[in-house]
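WARN no homologs supplied; continuing
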Amino acid sequence: MLWFERQVVSTLTRSLDGPHRDAVTGFVEGALADLPEHIRAGVAAESLLLGAWARLVHPGAGASPTIHLEPLESSPLAPVRQYVRLLRSLVLFAEHELAPGAGG
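OK structure emitted
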């Protein structure tokens, strides 16, 4: 998982406890790795661009700046909105599939 993807997933899972958060992050990482190559290439390219943009906008934020998803979710650019939707969907799916007591 690329840096920016990890930051977004971390933002989306901040309300989870440690072990469940790690399991969800691992699930999302595996799901991204399992994407067809042409789709993964597009997601990775967008991650690199958004990550570079985040570091330019907040140069003094260090290795783990706070990622604010609201501007991305309301972006006039559909691929940016869909990027957040993809990662949010993977996180939500993982939360429910890996929830304690979930059958499976």
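The CA atoms of residues 16 and 54 lie 24 Å apart.
OK
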